[in-house]
Design goal:
By secondary structure, this protein is α/β, with parallel strands linked by helices. The protein has 14 helices and 24 strands.
Length: 465
């Protein structure tokens, strides 16, 4: 029996990256995956959602074509074709990951893995059970959508994010339970496709944790798109009848829709892994790890959503490098001070570090720089003048503490702020960097200059705290 240096359980953006990183350093590696490599992100989450988002964004732009002097008939939309394109994108990327694993000589096992003791794993398939040994084990089993019993998810009328990505016919109406990033992304996408969308959120506003000023821009776009938003509202009951769902909302009349999407969070995939028997400590289903991604048992590491530290694909990939380094004798520690994220609504959101609200709650002494898309020559040329850039900087030395973006290419613009934060740049230093003209990143420069009231293309007195 081959003894591997590292065995990785789970082939998502944490697991397959860990396997390849280990192989690149000369380790003998295997990867165990029960479904397709790529995990939820590639197969049932980030990528298929963004493929549909790209289609929704194109439709949005086509409907504005007349403003550019392009006269076209009202575009017709074929959801089945868009769904097929989405599947083809996923298939191509899955194949790419498989080729990367093969090229790096990572041995891929298909099946469900569980711990059997120190350095021992069992792989279960319907027709066979196999066992292997490994000096180190990295658990990267990800997470799954929360399915509250009260909402009776049936996969046909009441769906999670996984099931809604598998539908082949466009629903006439959709009610989204949960106004977080998953719910709001699907709301934007399906509204652009022509579905009548309703979003229900029990908190006072959508997208909790994002900058309130940024969220207001998204709420305005939702209103223009005809999306009904009910905040401070709970779903008191669901009933499926004759292919439709009757939804009882607190303090409101009953709503009847064709489909319901339950988007109320995700929970770690830690069941049936043999964790308790192996002495691996968990808390509320999440595997407990230290800064080096080590679990309570020597030689066993955990990364990604199953740790419930930050449920983002790129964080799982980052943690993969930490776990591999330490499994091979290093002593690296994870640092989460600079973690950018993107929300693919229409318009997009990009964010990193502290929001203005969070800085105030921490009683920090800070300054704020703002710049509007309406003052950007490139945004006006593109016909995408809705949005803003906001930088939060320390009052004493000008270090950038956080940034929030909403508008065209916000998901890309946030990278510049993240790099500046990681490099320890001050707002003044970032404002001195020459930016190409005319481009959207000039707004980052102007927001940085506005921290000290020096933005050239901004009128009026600078407002801070």
């Amino acid at each position: 029996m081959t003894e591997y240096d590292i065995a990785v359980i789970g082939g998502g953006p944490g697991g397959y990256v860990a396997a390849i990183r280990a192989a690149q350093q000369g380790a003998c590696v295997c990867l165990i995956e029960a479904e397709r490599v790529g995990g939820t992100c590639l197969n049932h989450g980030c990528i298929p959602t963004k493929a549909l988002y790209s289609t929704a964004q194109l439709l949005h732009r086509m409907r504005q074509a007349e403003e550019h002097g392009i006269l076209v008939d009202t575009p017709r939309f074929d959801f089945a074709k868009a769904a097929t394109r989405k599947d083809e994108v996923v298939k191509k990327l899955v194949g790419g990951v498989e080729q990367l694993l093969k090229a790096n000589k990572v041995e891929l096992y298909r099946g469900k893995a569980s711990l059997e003791g120190p350095g021992r794993l069992r792989i279960q398939r319907p027709d066979v059970t196999a066992r292997l040994r490994a000096k180190n084990i990295i658990i990267a089993t990800g997470s799954r959508a929360v399915r509250p019993e009260a909402f009776a998810v049936d996969g046909r009328n009441v769906l999670t994010s996984r099931e809604i990505l598998a539908i082949k016919e466009l629903p006439e109406s959709l009610l989204v339970i949960g106004g977080g990033y998953i719910g709001c992304e699907f709301a934007s996408i399906f509204a652009a496709f022509g579905t009548q969308v309703t979003v229900v959120e029990q908190l006072p506003r959508l997208l909790g944790g994002s900058d309130p000023q940024v969220v207001k821009e998204v709420e305005k776009s939702f209103q223009q798109a005809g999306i009904a938003v009910h905040t401070d509202t709970t779903v008191e009951g669901l009933e499926v009848d004759s292919g439709r769902v009757r939804v009882r909302l607190s303090g409101r009349d009953e709503v009847s829709v064709e489909k319901v999407l339950v988007a109320v969070g995700r929970t770690p995939n830690s069941a049936d892994l043999g964790l308790e028997e192996a002495g691996v400590k968990t808390e509320k289903g999440a595997i407990l790890v230290d800064e080096g991604m080590r679990t309570s048992q020597a030689g066993i590491f955990a990364i990604g959503d199953v740790t419930n530290i930050i449920q983002l694909a790129h964080v799982a990939s980052y943690q993969a490098g930490i776990a591999v380094a330490n499994a091979l004798g290093g002593d690296e520690k994870a640092d989460y001070q600079v973690v950018p994220s993107a929300i693919f609504t229409l318009p997009e959101i990009g964010q990193v570090g502290l929001t203005e609200e969070a800085a105030r709650e921490r009683d920090l002494d800070f300054e704020v720089g703002r710049f509007s898309y309406q003052a950007s020559s490139k945004a006006l040329c593109d016909g995408e003048a809705r949005g803003l850039v906001k930088l939060v900087a320390a009052a004493d030395d000008g270090r950038i503490l956080g940034a929030s973006f909403v508008g065209e290419e916000a998901s890309s613009l946030v990278a510049e702020a993240a790099v500046a934060m990681a490099a320890g740049l001050s707002a003044e230093a970032l404002g001195r960097v020459i930016h190409a003209h005319p481009t959207l990143p000039e707004m980052v420069m102007e927001a940085a200059e506005d921290v000290h009231g020096l933005a050239v293309h901004k009128t009026g007195r600078k407002r801070n705290r």
